[in-house]
## 1
Amino acid sequence: MNKILISSCLLGEKVRYNGESKAFIDPRLARWQEEGRLIPVCPEMEGGLPVPRPPAQRRGDRVVTEDGSDVSQAFQLGAQAALALARQHGASVALLKQNSPSCGSRFIHDGSFQGMLIPGEGVTTELLRQHGIAVFGEDQLDEAERMLEEARLPD
């Protein structure tokens, strides 16, 4: 059975920068959780960042807070921890929080801290994809489900 790496905040954990969660309610997630398929992770916390923490956004290869502090190393450490967790559990799919500087899979904030989104991917998403793990945002649950179903089909 394929395991699924999932952003902890989507499961209701209060791990986001502002101490909130982004609980995503869907019967498929409930079923996958009951089946023991979900592997929760918060890359920012794995990288050593506290809750709450200053908001951060990607600017090219760096991740910075609004005051310009470079937190790239923590984001890289968190991405490495998420990859290690995926490998440990044999996860071939990740369902991560869209728009996040760690987890965004299609869009991220533009680095201006003005609420603007641009096409892009977070640090963790980028690393997972480089290592063959399919990453989807919560707005792509149908696609993730299709991929998981296809993986179950016999050759």
## 2
Amino acid sequence: MDSAMKKLNQVVIKLLSFMAIGLFLTACSNNLPTLPGASVHPSLTANPADYKYLIGPGDELNIFVWRNPEISGTFIVRPDGMVSTSLVEDLEVSGKTPTELARLIESELAEFIRDPIVTVTVEGFIGPFSEQVRVIGEAFEPQAINYREDMTLLDVMIQVGGLTEYADGDNARLVRVVSGEQRSYKVLVGKLIQDGEIEANVDVLPGDIIIIPEAWF
């Protein structure tokens, strides 16, 4: 009996200790300063109707210099948006199309090679954050998606696997940067993918954020 009481007292003491620690952490967190809101970064795509893929950190670039295999090769874009090639170091590539980058490399290589001809192809597409479509909340697989030409809400939801059973799809929000300001729009994800109301489908643009809340039962 004494042994059982001793164990019970130990459990109670541990629970009280955890509660005290929790209260202490809560009090400390309430006194911490609040960080300013995240910087607003509009999409680098000026006209979605003329969408072209833009290079971003993490992309794998195949840079081919005609008649110069020794300086051709595959290069990874660094987290700072720069890339270092065999002859040119710290070349800023993020936000450029492959064609724009090819012309830039040609101008840089002209110092070393006569009339260089460069071709750039991208493998392992990632792109800049400003061009990705991000889905958070009660999607089956929340993730950042590479924007594709003429992408719609339905395309995005297919890629994230639809809604979870706890999702309040018809109270979802789409956040978009318009004229340098973040604006929120209501999107009826539930009606679209659960009820099949195709009228609820809308165009998605580079940089959009889709937030799907949890339902209150």
## 3
Amino acid sequence: MSELVSFGETMLRFSPGKDERLEDAEEFEVHVGGAESNVAIAAQRLGTPATWMSKVPENPLGRQVVGKLRQYGIETDVSWCHRGRQGTYYMEQAGEPRGTNVIYDRQDAAITTAEARELNLDLIRDATVFFTSGITPALSPTLAETTMNLLKAAKEGGTTTAFDFNYRAKLWSPQEATETLTQFFPGIDVLVIAARDAQDVLGLEGDPRQIAHNLGSQYDFETVIVTRGSEGAIGWHDNVVHEQDVYETDTVSPIGTGDAFTGTFIARRLEGDDVPTALDYASAAAALKRTIPGDVALLTAEEVESVVKHGSKAISR
């Protein structure tokens, strides 16, 4: 039985070489990536048995996603289907002023039709933590309803629910996101949210410490984590606010940094760490992920431990 179960879409990511333009590329690197599977993998790398749930097309692309995730060490429990497609995205990376350009190609993906009755709800009820993100309900009205039903199943089983707000402007408007996601809040124990999303989407005022406290008090969350990018994170728990700085890092790829942070935080809490300690490990994992190409945090518990103990220069000997 997995301690952590996550639910969401995992896509295939096609990237040309660094600085290359998509329109001129002749070869692409292929990676798998999705917030929920990224979180599951990060937690598993820290020693937490994890399962990713989804609905996947029964075709070579869908099988590649599932096969890759299994290679990374997590269990998969999917509803295979013969309608719908495998979502993909394309990412062009370069220095400023071009920066990173992402093109999503996920319309009519198989997961957009996933319903709770197609999934193994007992896995969620038996898990210690159930995780999903705000990306999932943004993909279709069906998935918004499914997300609500999965959170309810978790509550029925006494499973702790963790949710990353994870607003994506390319998927829906701030108003749409607020109307939908705040309906989930009563069923969420641990909320992770970027300070910019709390301000720009939810319309909350104040600094991140005030935002964390206000969210925790208003919605009766058990824990609220407000991420601040290069300024670190704020953790609110038991009416106490904790502050966590970032570890210095050389960025190879920022994709998946937040997922590495969240997966590690969950794993360390499951190990019994208090919130400040779990935040410290999560920050170390996020720094390590930025040195790793692709979406997935292929790190080790020993590496994370070394950064926590000795700082950013710990493993560059």
## 4
Amino acid sequence: MFPTVSHFLEYLFGINLPLPFNTFGVFVALAFVAGYWAFTQELKRKEALGILHPIKKMITIGKRATTTELITNGIFGFVIGYKLVYALVNYQMFVSDAQGILMSAKGNVLGGLFFAGLFAYWDYKEKDKNKLDKPKEVQVTVHPYQIMSNLIVWAAIWGFLGAKFFDNLEYWDDFVQHPIERLLSFSGLTFYGGLICGGAAVLIIAKRNGIKPLHMLDVGGPGMMLAYAVGRIGCHLSGDGDWGIVNPNPKPFTWLPDWLWSYKYPNNVVGEGIPIPGCTGKFCNELAQGVYPTPIYEVIVCLLLFAFLWSIRDNIKAPGLMFGIYMILNGIERFCVELIRVNSKYHVFGLSFTQAEMISLFLVIGGIALSVYALRNKNELA
């Protein structure tokens, strides 16, 4: 396993380059990049077809930087400098525990003040270059794909908060025992929490920019499937704990690699399992028994599902139908993998189920209902 990017580089090239990046975080970032690409392509395609339309906005040009803008930029610069300079001065400590440094109160005050002044001055000079004696309002055209930068930022913020919230609900007992650690940790993220909260933020911003909710949902279906697949690569490579139950069964095919059937996740990032003989350092544990490598199963299946959704998008005419199909496929995929995946279970009225199984069931039912609704009302919704 590759808990950090440094481990990955050492495996590929045999070089020991200490970098403060964990593998899971890098693939989360790549998942957003993949989603950004797919969303943008769909927004452009739907605009070309006349389904989506650019909007006109009035903006003011020629204004000087306001005091509020200078203070805001200064605060942002201070935070960046406070942490960045401290991390550079204490680089080895930062490499060994980047999360601990970032989430602590430790920092460099002089670095913070320098960057605060730099950011405020930069904003002042940029506004000063274009200032007018009398600021004026001009009309600009905003195409649907041009709001993607705004969408991705808010999706990331609310997606992260939602993922943390749902994860703490799922592991409530552990949250009660270690609330601060779980709240400040970058690990422990639930996909469906991110999907629900991040998706809500996207719909609100899209509606403010003239895009109807059903059209925005259709835009997001293929992209979210692709982003999920890319994110799961990070889960597998880092060994973040999202693996399956113990698999003691022999391989069904001799040609099948061991890591695709039963895997112990050596050097996993969460430190689960037993010590690896001869290993020294921070990530030196592996599972006592091989488990189903469910993250890689999801990568394979979701890439195939993305390819399917991408291939049928030109044939989908009813608004809402694409997202309905996505909901059904996503729900079935996740429900099936939950059967062999380690997870916390709820016990209600004699039934035992995981949070993901419950949400998956709702997704399938909701997807069917949305698909039927879209097909019945395609003329009115277009």
